[in-house]
Amino acid sequence: MTDAFVTRFAPSPTGWLHRGHAFSALSAFEAARVAGGRFILRIEDIDRTRCRPEYEAGIFEDLAWLGLEWETPVRRQSEHMADYQRALDDLAARGLLYRCFRTRKEIAEEIARAPHGAMEVFRGAPLSAEEEARRLAAGEPFAWRLSLEAAAGVLGGFADLHFTDEHRGRVQATPAVGGDVVLARKDVGVAYHLAVVVDDALQGITHVIRGEDLFEATHVQRLLQALLGLPVPLYRHHRLLTGPDGKRYAKRDRAETLRELRGRGMSPADLKREMGLG
Ligand code: GLU
Q1: Domains in the chain with CATH codes
Q2: What pLDDT does 255 receive?
Q3: Where does residue 211 rank: exposed (0-12), middle (13-18), buried (19+ CB within 10 A)?
Q4: Nearest C-alpha neighbor of 177 from the set 155, 158, 195
Q5: Exposed, middle or buried, 100 (CB in 10 Å: 0-12/13-18/19+)?
Q6: 76 C-alpha vs ligand 1 centroid, how far in Å?
Q7: Are 7 and 39 in contact, with CB atoms under 8 Å apart?
Q8: Can you give the pLDDT at residue 103?
Q9: CA of 220 relative to ligand 1 center, distance in Å
Q10: How far apart are CA 15 and CA 207, in angstroms?
Q11: Less Cβ crowding at N or C end of the chain, within 10 Å?
């Protein structure tokens, strides 16, 4: 097995896996197999309020049923919060983050008030030093946001930020599409984008294979890689599977789960054929 091709499947144990997850996991696993590379399973469980041990057990069970094998021990993000905190502290010390005390409701209202098209994404101004000190003293919770303005200042703009997408070729990263993203949530202490780039680097991931729904995330993550001096993997954003209604499979729409498919006698071979992977 070669370290020149290391890919991963990184589910969050917030529900049972469905066909969309199976497609992602199989795509990454197959790519590693063909390349003689390594396949890593990572459990993205920083949000302890939504993750449950039975869903994690379900992930192992479903992937084993699909015939996948992965390296052990499996990295659980919740066990490595100090790694993400270090990256956060580094960014904060360089003046790239600001505290955001706004509630979800306030942000939604601000976006709704903005002239049409002027503010599809959130870019909040940091508070004055006095106002911030007052809110901190009052114990108000806050999130840390990445300041696009400060990031552009440090990097001299974003024109040199690129990544390679296997289908699109060289892509100019436009991290502004995500606005001033949250890198540490009020409740969780770290947010998805930060944990992902830190882990992809720590685990030596060379190929990120995941759905088209995360294409925008890649732009933001590319910026974080530049700010943190991390290597940039190659990206493959695969098509999204859609159900008979033409909509993509999603947990929130109660897509049929892999355990349900299994329960009604479907075999992994049937499923792979149905997904065009057999
Ligand atoms: N944990 C993310 C999810 O379940 C995937 C992260 C990634 O592939 O980068 O959607």
Answers
A1: 1-79+241-278 (3.40.50.620)
A2: 80
A3: middle
A4: 158
A5: buried
A6: 13
A7: yes
A8: 83
A9: 14
A10: 26
A11: C
Q: Parallel, antiparallel, or unpaired for β 234-238 and 207-211?
A: parallel
What's this model's pTM, rounded to 2 decimal places? 0.93
- pLDDT by residue (tens digit) across 209-237? 999 999 999 999 999 999 999 999 999 99
On the CB side of 141, CA atoms within 13 Å amount to 9
pLDDT digits (tens, 9 = 90+) for 131-160: 999 999 999 999 999 999 999 999 999 999
Asked if residue 44 has its Cβ within 6 Å of ligand 1, the reply is yes
Q: Give the tens place of pLDDT for each residue, 59-115.
A: 999 999 999 999 999 999 999 999 999 999 999 999 999 999 988 788 777 777 765
Residue 115 Cα to chain centre, angstroms: 30
Task: Concatenate the DSSP letters of all residues of 40-73 into one string.
Answer: EEEE----TTT--HHHHHHHHHHHHHTT----SS
Q: Whose CA is nearest to atom 7 of ligand 1?
A: 10
Sign of the Cα torsion 171, 177, 181, 187 reads: negative
pLDDT for residue 249 = 81
3-state helix, strand, coil in the chain (%, to 5): 45, 15, 40
Q: Which of 6, 75, 214 to mutate to test the pocket of ligand 1 (most atoms within 8 A of CB)?
A: 214
159-194: per-residue pLDDT in tens?
Answer: 999 999 999 999 999 999 888 999 999 888 899 999
